[in-house]
Amino acid sequence: MAAGRALHPPLEFTAHEKLGTVLYTEKQYSSAAREYEALLALNTPDKAGAYFHLAEAQLAAGNKQDARKNILKSLEIAPSYEPAQELLLKIVGKVR
Q: What is the chain's pLDDT, residue by residue, as a tens digit (96 residues)?
């Protein structure tokens, strides 16, 4: 391991995920998106979930183009992930 680099414990993943959820619930969508981006930057083991939540927050913030890009990344990792499939349909306007 390179000097100065630390391992990111699961607790750090959990903290970003929980904060993202709280911010999303509080309708602070851009801030929630930043938490999910942090999760991805930390190389979370649940990349499909992080991309899903990132896309969800981006869509809620009105950033449909990035939401589409990230939900597709989620589905590349986990093609049968139903919440991601449903969000993609919502993004492309097939469901309300």
A: 444 455 556 778 899 999 999 999 999 999 999 999 999 999 999 999 999 999 999 999 999 999 999 999 999 999 999 999 999 999 999 755
Is the distance from CB of 78 to CB of 84 less than 8 angstroms?
A: yes
Q: Count the neighbouring beta carbons within 10 Å of the beta carbon of residue 20.
A: 25
Using DSSP, state whether 4 is helix, strand or coil: coil
pTM of the model: 0.87
The total of structural domains in the chain comes to 1
CATH code, domain carrying 25 = 1.25.40.10
